[in-house]
Amino acid sequence: MDLEKKQQNINTFSSFMIVATFFSLWLSVYFDVQAEAFLSYFLIFTFGIFHGSNDLKLIQQTSGSSKKNFFLRALISYVTVIALTVAFFSFFPVLALGFFVLASSYHFGEQHWAQYTERSLLAYVFYTCYGMVIFFLLFYCQADAVTPIIYEITGINLQADHYLYTLASSFGIFMLIYFWWLWKRKIKVNMIKELFFLLVFFIVFKTASLIWAFSIYFVIWHSIPSLMDQTRFLYGKISKASLLSYFRTSFIYWIFSMIGLAGLYYLFHDKQGLFLSILIYFLAAITFPHVIVMNRLNRS
């Protein structure tokens, strides 16, 4: 009965995400470019950043530590990873961007598929390939906007065909692993529904602007589900009280993030391409430690 109720909750939440996605797409009809960009940044900087602002609490929960100096040590480690990421981008931008895409792909795939699969090396490949399908579907649909940003960061001028080849390869490996698990009876997932979700993403990525398309996926399909999972892990259930507790413990770290980003936006708001590049640096810096934390949470 619990399993049946859980599946009903998943189906209900999936329906909500579909409705929210097309509602967001419909809203873009009534927005000009500046209003759409403003709303995109607002969603990314609120829900998007907030879902990664409680990592220190999650580290404490998964480690079982209750020492008074725990948060100081964890904070120093967390900031060190961010600083190393910034240095990585400064000195090795091509490797850093590639690693960011791979790490983010794995993170997106893990969030979506961890509840359906057992932990294994093949599962890590499966998660990464699914995330790369998402990324390179977006890159291919938005090639004219993505290529200049990648060129600005790395100096490499990619073409739409490069995104398409990577997309096709990632999708092929993803499906091969799925059918292997299906044959071994190690997975029970409605793949028709999952392919329908990819079709929805294609429609969004092809129709919306780059930043709006990314924010729709990042917030509705990744950040909000992740936030719900973290709240359930920390407090045992989803309720008004547990969500308030989550936001309360996340707020101070979110504020520090917003102060830095507000300064960047003030300096570069009239140069959208440059600001998008800086936004990628910032997201990469907070993504790497967040991926480690969420991987630990899922294993526990």
Provide the fold topology.
Elements: H1 2-27, H2 33-50, H3 55-63, H4 70-91, H5 93-113, H6 121-141, H7 143-154, H8 160-183, H9 191-207, H10 210-235, H11 240-268, H12 272-299
Count of distinct structural domains: 1
Order of helices and strands: HHHHHHHHHHHH
Tally of helical segments? 12
Strand content: under 5%
Main β-sheet, in a few words? none
Helix content: over 70%
Give the radius of gyration. 19 Å
Characterization of this structure:
This is Probable beta-carotene 15,15'-dioxygenase. Its main location: membrane. It is found in: Cell membrane. Its EC number is 1.13.11.63. InterPro entries: Blh_diox. 84% of the residues lie in helices and 0% in strands. The chain is mostly helical and 300 residues long. The protein has one domain. The chain is globular. It starts with a helix and ends with a helix. The mean pLDDT is 81.
